[in-house]
Write a structure and sequence with these properties.
258 residues; five-stranded mixed beta sheet; Rossmann fold; globular; 50% helix; single chain; disordered N terminus
C-alpha cells in the first residue's frame, strides 16, 4: 500500500508539473490566435470630436456641390475693338453720337483680324455703329455667319464732349470731366448731357447678363469699342473703378477675352 501511494503521489506531482508547464503555452497560443481588436475611443469627448469632424466634412462637401449646381453658366466672350475709324488718328472722341466709318487702314486691320482669328465662333455680335459692323463683316463672311446687332455694346455717349479732339479736352474747361492715369490714359467720368462712367457700368452689366443668358457655355465674338470693353472687363471681374482705369486702351482690332 505504501508503494502504491508513493507511485500515485509521484504521478500526480508529475502531471501537476506538466499541467503547470503546458498552461502558459496554451494561453499564449490562444492570445496569438485570437482576433485583433479594433481600437475604440474610450474617451466620450474624443468620440464626440470625431463625429463633429465627420459632420462638418459632409456638410462642407454638400455645400460645395450645391453651390456648384447653383452657379449659372456663362458665355465665353471674345471682345474685339473695331478697326481704326475716321477721326481715330486725330484722337477725336467719337462716342456713340458720331457714327464714323472705318478708315482705309481700319479696313485692312479688319481683314487681317478675320483671316487670323483662330476658331469659328458660335455667334458674331456687334455694336450697331458703322465702324464696328464694318469690322465684323470680314469675319462673318469667312465663316458664312450672320452678324447679330447688340446695341448695349455701343461706345460710351460722350455727350457735349463728342467730336472734340484730345487737345481740346485737355483744356481747363473740359479736363475736370476726366480721370487721368499714370500711363496718360483719360477716362470720361462725367459726360455733360451724355453717359457717366457709372451709367456705362450699368449698361455693361446688362449686356453681360444678356450674353450669359442667351449664349451660356458658347463662344461668342462681340465687336465693340475701347472704353466699353474696358468697362465690361472691370464689371465682369468686379474691379474698382481705379483698377479698371489702369488698363490701357484696347488697340484697334485688339482682343479681350472674358
Amino acid at each position: 500500500m505504501t508503494g502504491r501511494k508513493k507511485r500515485a503521489s509521484k504521478s500526480a506531482s508529475a502531471s501537476g508539473r506538466l499541467s503547470a508547464k503546458a498552461g502558459p503555452k496554451r494561453r499564449g497560443a490562444a492570445i496569438r490566435a485570437g482576433p485583433k481588436k479594433k481600437t475604440t475611443h474610450s474617451n466620450p469627448k474624443s468620440r464626440a470630436k470625431s463625429s463633429t469632424i465627420k459632420t462638418r466634412a459632409k456638410s462642407s462637401s454638400t455645400a460645395r456641390s450645391s453651390s456648384a449646381a447653383r452657379s449659372p453658366a456663362r458665355a465665353y466672350i471674345w471682345f474685339v475693338r473695331h478697326g481704326q475709324a475716321e477721326g481715330n488718328e486725330r484722337h477725336i472722341f467719337n462716342g456713340n453720337r458720331i457714327d464714323a466709318p472705318l478708315s482705309a487702314r481700319g479696313r485692312v486691320q479688319a481683314n487681317y483680324f478675320a483671316l487670323h482669328f483662330p476658331f469659328r465662333p458660335d455667334a458674331i455680335l456687334s455694336s450697331p455703329l458703322k465702324r464696328a459692323m464694318q469690322t465684323a463683316l470680314p469675319l462673318a463672311a469667312r465663316f458664312g455667319m450672320e452678324i447679330v446687332p447688340l446695341p448695349d455694346a455701343e461706345e460710351q455717349d460722350y455727350g457735349e464732349l463728342s467730336g472734340k479732339s484730345r487737345e481740346q479736352l485737355l483744356t481747363p474747361r473740359y479736363r475736370r470731366y476726366f480721370h487721368f492715369t499714370s500711363n496718360e490714359q483719360m477716362y470720361t467720368v462725367h459726360a455733360p448731357w451724355g453717359e457717366d462712367w457709372e451709367d456705362l457700368k450699368k449698361r455693361a452689366a446688362r449686356c453681360l447678363r444678356g450674353l450669359d443668358k442667351h449664349y451660356a457655355g458658347r463662344r461668342v465674338v462681340v465687336i465693340s469699342h475701347s472704353d466699353f470693353i474696358n468697362c465690361a472687363y472691370g464689371v465682369r471681374n468686379r474691379m474698382e473703378n481705379r483698377q479698371t482705369w489702369r488698363r490701357r486702351d484696347v488697340a484697334n482690332c485688339g482682343i479681350v477675352r472674358l
